[in-house]
Amino acid sequence: MLAYLLIICVAFFVVAVMLVQLVGEYLFTQRVRDEQRITLELSQHMAESLLLSDAEAMYADAVSLSEGYESRILVLDMHGVVQVDSQSQLNGQRLERREVAEIIDGAESAYGFYVDSQAGNSLFGGDGTTGLYTAAIYSSAGPIGMLAYVSDAQEVYTSMREIQNRIVIWLVVVALCVVVMSLFISRFFTKPIEALNQGILRMTKGDFSSRVNIRGNNEFAQVGRAFNMMSERLESLDRSRNQFVSNASHELKTPLSTIKILIETLIYQDPMDPGMTKEFLSNINSEIDRLNGIISDLLSLVSIDSGEMRLKREKFRLDDMVRDCARKLAPLARERGIELEETVRDAVEITADKSKLMQVVYNVIDNAIKYTPRAGSVHVDMARAGKRAVIRISDTGIGIPEEDQKHIFDRFYRVDKARSRETGGTGLGLSIVKHAAQYHKGRISLWSDKDGTEITIDFPQN
Ligand code: ADP
After folding, report:
1. What's CA 336's distance to the chain center, in Å?
2. Is the dihedral of CA 454, 460, 461, 462 positive or negative?
3. 181-212: per-residue pLDDT in tens?
C-alpha cells in the first residue's frame, strides 16, 4: 500500500515539474514573440524619420512610444552608436551588446536578457532582468540602422513564478486529495477482501460458524452474502453429519450391547439347558440380522449423500412388481394377523431402477404391517393416472400424530422409539424411501389420523 502511495507521489512530482516547466516556457515564448513583434513594428515606424535623419521626430516618437509600452526605446546607426534614446542618456554612445552586433552582422532581429547589475550598464534601471530586443531599420537600399527595445522582463519572471507557484500549490492539493482518496478507496476494497479472507481462514480451520459482515449492495456485499449462505449450509451439513454419526453409533451400539450380554450369559452361566442356549443363540442371530439391516440402510444413505446412487434403468411392469411385494410380505402379515389385500387396476410399464422402486414399495408396505395392530388390515392400490403411476398403501394402524408427520421422512426419526426397535425399525426406512423416490422424480404424500395411515407414491412412467 505504501509503495503504491509512493509511486503516486513520485508520479505527481514528475508531472508537476514537467507542467511547471511547460507553462513557464509557454509564457516566456509568448512574451518574447509579443515583444519581437512590437520591436519590428516600431522599427518600421522609425524607418522614415531615420532616413530623413529627423532626430527630433525620432526622439518625440521614441518618448511617446516608450511611455505607451512602458519601455525604453533607442535608435542606433549601423555602427551601434545611439542616435536617439527615449531616456536621453546614451545619445552618441556605442552600445556594446550582442543583440546590436548581430544586427550589424546582417541579422533582421535579435534578443537577449540581462540582469542589469551583471551587465554593468543598466538599460532599464533597478536590479531586475531586462529584455533587449533589436530589429534592423531598412530603407529601400538596405539596413540603415536599428531599433533597440528595452523592456522589464522581471515582471514576466515574477508573474511566471506566481503562476508556477499556483500550479505547484494546486498539484500538491490534488496529490493530497488523490492520496486521501486512494487510502479511502483501498480501504473500501481491502476491508471486505480482508473480512472474506479471515472468514475463509476460520472455515479452513473447521469453524463453520464463521460469517462475514459486508454492508451495502455492491459486488463485495453479494460475495459476502454468498459466503454466508455457503457457511450456513456447511454448518448445517456439519451439524447433520455429526448427528448422523452419533445416531448411527447409537443404533449400532444397542444390538451390540444386547449381543454382548447374551454372549456373557452363555459364557458365565453354567450349566445352561440346551433349550435356553438355543433361545439365546437365536436372539443373538436376530440381533446380528438387525445390525446387518442397520448397516445396509446406512450404506444406502451414504451412497445417496455422496450422489453415487446409480440407477440401473430397465423396462418392467410396475403392476407385477407391486403384486410381487405384496406376495413377499404376505407371510409377515399372516403371522401378525393382518389382512393384506392388493388391488392392481392397470397394467403399467415403467422405465426405472426396479430394485430401488421395489425397496420403496416394500418398505412402505412393511411399515404399514409393522404399525398396524392384530386384526387390522393393509390395502395396496395401484392405478395409472395420466402419464404417472400411483401406488396407495393404506392401513388401519396406530396412525402418526400430526406433530410427527413432517418428521417421519427424516433420518433416525421414530414416533415411538421402543415400538420401532421392537419391530426391528431403524428410523432410516422412510428417509431412504423418500430419496429413492426422488431419484425417480417420484412424489410421496402422507395422510394419517388415529384410525390409520395412507401413503401415496406416484412416479412418471419413464
Ligand atoms: P422405522 O425403521 O422405525 O420403521 P421409518 O423411517 O420406516 O423407520 O419410519 C419412521 C417412523 O414413522 C417409524 O418409526 C414410525 O413411528 C412412523 N411410521 C412409519 N410408517 C407408519 C405407519 N404406516 N403407521 C404408523 N407409523 C408409521
Report:
1. 63
2. negative
3. 888 888 878 888 888 899 899 988 888 888 88
Ligand 1: residue whose CA is nearest its atom 12: 408
Question: How do 349-353 and 109-115 pair as beta strands?
Answer: unpaired
Ligand 1 contact via 452 beta carbon (within 6 Å): no
- pLDDT tens digits, residue range 223-262? 889 999 999 999 988 888 888 888 888 888 988 999 999 9
Q: ∠ CA(77), CA(83), CA(84), 5° rounding? A: 130
The amino acid sitting at 318 is L
Task: Judge contact between 156 and 27, C-beta under 8 A.
Answer: yes
| Cα 448 to middle of ligand 1, angstroms | 12
Tell how far the Cα of 431 is from the centroid of ligand 1, in angstroms. 10
Residues 6+ apart with CB under 8 A from 388: 458, 459, 460, 461
How far is 90 from 115, CA to CA, in rounded Å? Answer: 19
Number of neighbouring beta carbons within 10 Å of residue 322: 25
Average pLDDT, rounded, for the chain: 87
Cα 285 to averaged position of ligand 1 atoms, centre (Å): 24
Q: Which residues pair with 395 in a beta bridge?
A: 378, 453
**Nearest residue by C-alpha to atom 8 in ligand 1:** 427
